[in-house]
Here is the input.
Amino acid sequence: MSDNNKKKGPETKTYKFDTLSLHAGYQPHKNAGSRQVPIYQTTSYLFDDVDHAAALFNLERGGHIYSRISNPTVGVLEERVASLEGGTAALATSSGMSAIFLTVMTLCEAGDHLVVSSQLYGGTVNLFRLTLPKFGIKCTFVKPRDTEGFKKAIQKNTKGIFGELVGNPGNELMNMPEISKIAHEAGIPLIVDATYQTPYLCKPFEHGADIVVHSLTKWMAGHGSSMAGILVEGGNFDWMQNDKFPTMTKPYEGYHGLSFAEEFGPTAFTMKARAEGMRDFGPCLSPQNAWNVLQGIETLSVRMKKHCSNAEEMVKYLLAHESVAWVSHPSVPDHPDHALAKKLLPNGRGSMIAFGIKGGKDAGVAFINNVKLASHLANVGDTRTLVIHPASGTHSQMDEATLKFAGLSHDMIRLSVGIEDIDDIKNDFEIGFRAARKPRLVSNQ
Amino acid sequence: MKFKVNGQEVFASTGGRPFDKNKPLIIFVHGSGLTHMTWVLQTRYFAFHGYSVLALDLPGHGLSSGKSLKSIEDMADWISNVIDAVGYKEASLVGHSQGCLVTIECTARYPDKIKTLSLMGGAGAIPMNPDLLALAENGDPKAVDLMMDWAHGPAGHFGGHPVPGLYHINTGGMLAKSRTIKDTLGVDFRACDNYKNGFEAAKKIKIPTLSILATDDKMCPVKEGRKLADLIEGSKVDIIDNCGHMMLLEEADRVLKVLKSFITTNYPSKN
Here is the structure.
C-alpha cells in the first residue's frame, strides 16, 4: 500500500477562515431566511412576559434587553470575530479605544498597575499615561523589544501586560510568546492589540495572548466608513489561580452574588465586560456600523493578501529610492525583528511601513502636501493608501522625550499601503519625493 | 460551591443562587471531558425559580479534585453519594451524553432517590469511534476538535448563540481542554465505550423520564435515543430540529423550554 492510500484517521471538518469570514455567527433560518445579516435598528426588545424579562436581567438565559448591552446585528459581528480569532467570546464597542478602555476597566480597580509597551498608537499612550491614573490605575512603559524589561516592571499589584504586536508607528515587534510566558508566570493575562495584523496575519491566542483587542475601523472593515472596536477572549486564562482578580472570582453584588469566573469560565471576562462595562459605561456599537464592518470582513483574506503584496513592493521601491533615508518594515531582512515576524506573521508582514525622508521635517511636510493619490489623514488600514507625519499628527500631543521613548523621529512618515494598482502608488510617491527634494535644490543654487 | 464526597473536594455551580436545602434538588451531569459550565443556560433558570441546583464537575474535571472515575457504574454511585453529601434524600437528575449513561445507571441503582430523569442526547450505549478514543487517550488536542466538530450540527457550526458574542464551538473546546485531555476526555471516552448496561438499566426505570433528542445529532442519533426511550415506561420524547448533539448550547432556549415544562410538572417546587 502506498503512503497516499494509508488510512489517515478522521479529520475535522469545521469551517475554515474564509468560510467563517462570510458565515460565522449567523443562521438565516432564524432570521426570516434573509441571506444577508439584517440590521436590527432598534433600541430595545419585547419580553414574552415578566418571567422572561427577569430571566434576561438575571443572566438566566441568553437574549437581548437593550442595544447598549447587546444587539443581534452586533452579536453576529462579535461571534464572527471570535470565530476568526479562535476565541470563545467577543464584545464589540464603538471604537478601538473604547475596547481598550473597557478591557482595562474590566480587569483593574483603583490601585492596580499595568505594564505597557511604549510603542503604541498616540491615543492609547495618552489613555495609559494621562487618563488611567485619574482612575487610580498606573502604568509602567517598556520598550517593545525589551522582553526582560516587561518582567522587571511587574509589581505586586500588576494586573496585566498590554502591547501592540507590531508597534505604531515604528514597526517594532513584541516577542509575544516570551512575554506571554512572563505574564503567565506572574499569574496575569497578556492583552494584545492586533489591529495591524487582523486574524488573517496572526492569531495572538496561538502565541500565548489571553485577550485581543482590535480597532475594527481599520483593516477588518477596510472601507474606512465606520468606527468600531472589539475585545476577544481566548478562554484559556485561569482567573481563579490566585487572588489578583477578586472582581472576576468573588460574588458580585450587581448580579445577585454571581462569580463570573465560576459561572462562565472561558467566557467570564467577556460576560463581565458586557454585564458591568456596557451597562455602566455604555460604549455600544451601532447596528449600522456593525453591519458595515461585517461587509468588510467578508473580503478580509482577499484584501489582506493584496495589502501585503503591495506593501512588500513598496518596501523594495522605498529601499532603492534616493530620497529615502531608512525604511522600517518587518519584511526587510535587516529589520531587527525580521525572524520573529516570519514566525508570528507567516501570511504576510502587514501593510504598515515607516520610512525616513531625506531632508527631515520640511521634506516630510512637502511630501505629504504634494502626494495626490495617497490620502493624508489620521487613519490606517483603509483600502486606499494613507500617509501621515506622526510627529505633527497622530503623536503630536507627546512631548519630545515621549516621542523619543516611543521611537518617533521628525523625518518619519507613516505609510498605510492600500490595494490600488502598485504602479499608481509609486507614481504618486514620485510626485511627493520631487516636491520634497525641491526646497533643497533651490537652496543649493 | 465546594463540598466533599469520598474525601475528595467537589465543585458544583449552584446557578448563581445560594444553595438552599429547603428547595427540591436538581443535579446536572455533564458529558465527556466537559464541566459544569455547559449547563449555564439551564441551571440559572431553575436556581432562580424555586430549586436548588448542582451542576457538578465530575471528579478530576473542571474545579473538582481527585482523579476521573473509570466506569459509568462508579460515576452512578458517586452521584448517589453527592445526594447524601449535601444532605438530601432525593433529587431530580439531568444528564447530557455520557451524563445520560450515568444518570440512567444511577436511577436504576437508586430508584428511591431519583424522582425525575431528563436525558439530552442520550442513548443506551455510546460506543466510541476507535480513532477518536485513541486520540483522547493519547491526550491529542485533535480529539477535542473532532468531538466539537461531530457534536455540533450543521447550523451549530455557524454559531448564532443566544448569548450575544459567545462562539460555542470554541467555548466547548476550551472547556474540554481545561484539564489534561487524556485524564478527562480519554478516561471518559473509555468509560462510555466499556459501558454495556444502558438498555437493561433503562428497563428498570419507573419514574417520569424525558428524552430530548436532536435531528442532526451524529453522536447519539434520534433512532438510538428512541430505542432507549422505548424501554423506559411512559417516557416522553422531544425532538429538536436543525440541531446537533450539543443541544444545550446550540439550542439553549428550546432545550430550557422543554426541560422547564417537564420538571416543573413532574417535580414541582413549592418555593
Remarks:
- Chain A touches chain B through 55 residues (CB under 8 Å).
- Chain A is about 40% helix and 15% strand.
- The radius of gyration of chain A is 23 Å.
